[in-house]
User: Fold these one by one.
Assistant:
Number 1:
Amino acid sequence: MSTAAIELKGISKAFGPVQANKDISISVQPGTIHGIIGENGAGKSTLMSILYGFYKADAGEIFIRGQKTSIPDSQAAIAAGIGMVFQHFKLVENFTVLENIILGAEDGGFLKPSLAKARKLLKELADDYGLSVDPDAKVEALSVGYQQRIEILKALYRQADILILDEPTGVLTPAEADQLFRILGRLREEGKTIILITHKLREIMDITDTVSVMRRGEMTATVKTAATSPTELAELMVGRKVLLRVDKKPATPGAPVLKVDNLRVVDNKGVERVKGISFEVRAGEILGLAGVAGNGQSELLEVLGGYRAATGQIVMNNEEIDLTGAKSDGQSRRARGIAHVPEDRQREGLIMDFMAWENTAFGYHKDNRYKKGVLSDNASIRGDTEEKMERFDVRPPNPKLSAKNFSGGNQQKIVLAREIERNPDLLLIGQPTRGVDIGAIEFIHQQIVALRDQGKAILLVSVELDEIMSLSDRIAVMFDGHIMGERQPDQTDEKELGLLMAGLTPEAAE
Amino acid sequence: MDKMPRWADVLLIPLISLLLAAILSALVILAIGENPVEALGYMVEGALGSTYGWGYTLYYATNFIFTGLAVAIAFHASLFNIGGEGQATLGGLGVALVCLALPWPHWTLALPAAVIGGAAFGAFWAAIPAYLQAKRGSHIVITTIMFNYIAFALIIYLLNNGLKPIGQMESSSARFPEGAALPTLHEMLAVVGIPFSKAPPVNISLFLALAAAWGVWLLLWRTPLGFEIRAFGKSEPAGRYAGISPTKIIMITMLISGGLAGLMAINTVMGEAERLVNNSVQNAGFIGIAVALMGRSHPVGILIAGLLFGFLVQGGAELAFWTSIPTELIIVIQALVILFTGALDNMVRMPVEALFSRRRLAAKATPAE
């Protein structure tokens, strides 16, 4: 075996009482793609932040190409040839590609020589790795996949030969993800070492050579990808057997609960985000709304949830809803039997500084059963919360703990318990399992299916195609504010949906 | 897990901050060639050593509790109301107009009417910036500051043009009728046979302030409206999701905030001066910001912080009286307390938090090994 590109020995890091990384040792061979997989909060990002100099490890050593190296900051990481592509890009939107690439790596006090040098180097990189870009394009005009390519080029420009990618496919369409993997494959051929952090088993299986599994701050296994299976990896991640497929009976749809007709939404900047869409959701079915983030799904959910104005028509249980925002808000929507699990639970669904019991009443705090005269009946809310926490297996089952102190999965269970337990006619649910660990995903999916089986209508919005395909009874795909088409999950595949998500009808693509 | 126990958050950190402020104040006193221990002695003796001293301390504390509550309730909605000074000034006008309107037969009738007048005028003065914030997006910090100056100018104008009786030299309103005089603590305690100094102006408003503190607590933590105020203050997007109207919360919170600031005038204008004078607020509106910060926007904390600032004002006055330490130095000491408890809160907080999490970690690690 050749000298490892990166070797970590006994890395430990604690944040207060939380042991984020516990005695982690890992060795990454040069010229390979090494996957690191684990649930949210397993410590993947902490480990990579230590490697990139954002955090200092409490204990342990780092060896780069056999040399013991200390990485006190990101400058040192770059000097050691490590490049990082973050999940959220760090690009200046109104700068050109070239300007973004030299940003922070300018030489000298004048820009011109740097830019000229970068232009030349960029051309070489493009030829070497097949990463062609237009150096003079403004970043804001580029697609997400393209922007990611600039992030990779930024790292290569700084002469990185070890690349760390943190959840790189979260914002990409399936086609863009394939393209990214082709680029990574090419980089590997050229001898670069790549660390890929992800929670998606399929990506690990598709592209990595070796995979390390993390669970609760520990490295539980490192195996050759060829010698393992998704089921085995999932078990290693969670620590027990998991059901990767959702178990559900065929739907028996009833009468339409929600009818949306020619809905248009203009955002605060005056841009039309939803461009005249129509659909309906029936009782006892799950309509899955697929699409890459930012194609109007969020605005649609906000309109249905009652906190964004729109034009068009929405009929709920045969009654038309006011869309101007003048006569309705979130509370009046709840009164009509619409429950809403928002896409961003930490920003909207919960108040992170409030205790679990306060969050249980949130949005329903004016309910008569939570009131005693004009005062709130806090004891009754707390009792209610205890029951809900037990039924939804929220851990720890402590109503007095602040929302911010629960894990992502348990936070989502609190929101879900609050919304489902109201017995709504329609459940709006956005990104139900974003940032949620595999064990909790299983539970959340079961709850959604159970609600459907009770004859409720469910509108599911998710950017995870797997989730859409396994939960939905019907799938609609949104792109650029339009619904590109509707499919039956058993009569379509990822390729077809992927094309729709990219705005292409299959007919046009052929 | 929270970073440290609650008692450390509400007691330990303010105490450490206070201690640091005291040490620095002592150094300043040393630097001007005076004895800090002696100075502290004068302050404690002057503010807490007699019922006379206590009377003044409580009188000032009453003001600071009202203005502290006003700032605190706005803080809970994430609004920074710097206009307590102006709102209290207008509150004084409201109180004066009510007291002068009728030949009040007894204070039990005059007080409820004056409470309504003071609160309504204070609330009105807060309502304009609140409306501008809610509907036009004008930042409330800027507008409330500007409204302070408008209030000062308005009062001077009204005192000289209408409120001042003809033939009077001083620019103040006419004296309030006898029936509008509030019972002092001396009179109230005399009923139950407790002797209390007759001189200080502390009066029944103290109990009104305590009731207001209880009311604010009840509103914030025991009513759906308070829940909405706190929820909106913590997260506006979450508030919108839950159907909480930002306009409604901003307006209601600022009305209550302004009303509380306006109530301060019951203590100063009706209880002490018994007429409207210029600058009746005397910075209590601004000190309320420090009181709210130090009291962590909780009514109990505000009672304690209000008392502390009452002590500083009264003790400071005594210090200036008995020693050659100039009154300006008292302002320096107050400023240090504000600096350490308010602005430099994190300086003390972070090391204390680190200490607690280290201790907790150690406690956790020991049984495992």
Number 2:
Amino acid sequence: MSQLRTIQEINEKIAKGQVVVATAEEVISLVEKQGVEKTARQVDVVTTGTFGPMCSSGAFLNLGHTTPRMRMSKVSLNGVSAYAGIAAVDVYIGATEIPETDPANSDFPGAFNYGGAHVIEDLVAGKQVFLQATSYGTDCYPRQKLEKYITLADVNEAYLFNPRNCYQNYNVAVNLSDRTIYTYMGILKPNLGNANYCSAGQLSPLLNDPLYRTIGVGTKIFLGGGIGYVAWQGTQHNPNVARTENGVPRGGAGTLALIGDLKQMTTKYLRGVSFLGYGVSMQVGVGIPIPILDEQMLRHTAVTDAEIKAQIVDYSEAYPQGTGGSLGEVSYAELKSGKIIVQGKEVPTAPLSSYPKAREIAELLKAWILKGDFALTEPVAPLPTVEFPVKFEDQAK
Amino acid sequence: MIKRKVVLHFPATVVEQPFIYTLAKEYNVVANILKANINPRKEGRMVVELSAEDQEFNAAMDFLHSRGVQVLPLEQQIIWVEDRCTQCGACTVICPTNALWMKRPEMTVSFCSEKCIVCERCLKACPARAVEALYLSGE
């Protein structure tokens, strides 16, 4: 397939204020109206967005040295333990960590009102956070105890480092048992009472670049309201899955490890959340620009909710026992309609991923690029992918 | 004809009196009890839908007030904090009356207070904790 433009050419157009950007939603109607060929020639960049709970998130903080100096071996922030098994005054606060005093699920179902993600949200909101640290003394780090209030401004470096974000597609969770279950996919009522799903579908970054042709290590992104980068393939990144003819995975597949400056972020796109009976998580807003290098990329970004399929999984037995098995396949268009049919029964659906926020992020990233504030990057290394012969229906007409 | 969902607060001194019977018998009020409980201090709280002809409805309200029963409008009880809501939609399949509902295809969450029966299931079903219950204690 012939190349239409390079990333360098796109950046020149951004600098000149001549770039043409569409969101992953807008590009669908453009293709419907004028076909693939014309749209691919017209649009330089397609912006994507997602905003959902991404448990595998957290932040590295450098808390700064005290006088006398301290190593800080055990650290907690607002009672939530942060990992301090690295150099002096460096810690990692994980999104799902809960205070030692939290009753967790001993009072079932636990409320999990506060945890690491909320500490991060409080820091981003500019609130004071209570730091407690202890240490064994050393000749170079004699201090053994510290208690004080800190804010994000007091911290030297603070960056989000999320080992597994932006899951490329996900399960639709249902409950076949006769009791309510409490999961990371939300509350699932008995006997197929509801079906919960979690993806921005046609707006989701990795569903718009299903074979990771443009998203790679080093790709500059929107993260939590600021600038971030793809650091690596995420944990559990697995490109070797069943795909539809246009290359879109039919279930969970690729993931991204993301990094970004916490000091640029806002609580609008980074929020602590509580899942009843499960635990704490963090809603993370991510937006990734996709350069339309050729017609194939345009076809990928024009994917619709009707063409993206997900697997229905029973979270009362098949998922926890790891026995696998899908109860059926549904499209995101069906999921978004509000009800699906599972085992002959009409089941109401609910998203955990916010579609309006995903749209907002894609729009915001588009505005940044149009203003010339955000240039695109060439990935410095590709993500593991698969050879996949993509077959597109002839949409060009 | 007036039809209204209200929260009745019964002080401990009157909690044993048969109010609903009196409302029906003396004032022709139809009472649909949505939720009722008595706390350890013997104070009662009832979420109820009351309907009657205007005159009888108002007379019934006067009767409740005269006996020390506090009548509060229901919409003051559950507060959906729109700013805190991240528009995910997790609450919409948990809410039994579709008071919290999703506008499609926009996929935005809205709250309709008229439909709310104050069951409070949304309080902990909302991951962002964007729903609050406002307890108005009787003075």
